[in-house]
Amino acid sequence: MSLWSTSSGRRSIYDPSNFSPDYNWYQASHPPSRIKKMSQSGEPPCILNSPAYLSWRKLQLSRAKLKASAKTSALLSGFAMVAMVEVQLSNDSQVPQSMLVAFAICTTLLVAVHMLALMISTCILPNMEAICNLHSISLVHESPHERLHWYIETAWAFSTLLGLILFIIEIAILCWVKFYDVSQYAAWSACIILIPVLIIFLAFAIHFYRSLVAHKYEVTVSGIRELELLKEQIEAGDMERANGTGLLSASQVV
Questions:
Q1: Phi, psi values for residue 88, rounded to 5°
Q2: pTM of the predicted model, to two decimals?
Q3: Three-class SS of residue 11?
Q4: What is the pLDDT of residues 23-72, one digit of tens each?
Q5: Direct distance between the N- and C-terminal alpha carbons of the chain, in angstroms, rounded to an integer
Q6: Measuring CA to CA, which residue among 42, 116, 131, 51 is closest to residue 77?
């Protein structure tokens, strides 16, 4: 049966007859409720499993990562610069020289890491936004997200993992520099509070990345199983057609 577009009056490119013969089997094995969950935009299931659509999903994920990295890096690097500028040190200060050196090194590393993540996000994000705003899956190959995948992951790791760890260390050192001459008890109190916060942060980061890897593994295994089932269905259909052709030839000979 032909499908016609109500807006243009032409044959729709999503006519089931345009896809493989196994589309009917796929439709039977995937109820409408599952198909609806897979796509809210009305795309056929075979389009959802195409390489272009998978690349489009990676493009959206990379875009979200770069946006989050840019915002986080700009915010935290600004806080670090303000902390360095606003700290007041006098000649009579008894703050140890090693602590001042640690404060300068940590602040410089913090700003440098976030500036690197911000630079990567600022350079790559406009090229991805230009493709995303077109809302055309056929143009996904023009986006650099596949080739620059490692740069995107580097910006994400610098902004969310390394940058946040440096920011927590920066707070601890800043408390010592600020309260060393006034009250060392206040500095120790800040460190005692920040140590469990840092431990919880590291535990959550490890748990999050392990869960993310496990989720990607499960999705990949599920996709491989569906491909194996599809292969078995194709082979079974070929065997049935071959047997039917053989019986037809034998009957014609008789």
A1: -115, 120
A2: 0.64
A3: strand
A4: 443 444 444 444 444 444 445 555 555 677 778 888 888 889 899 999 99
A5: 37
A6: 116
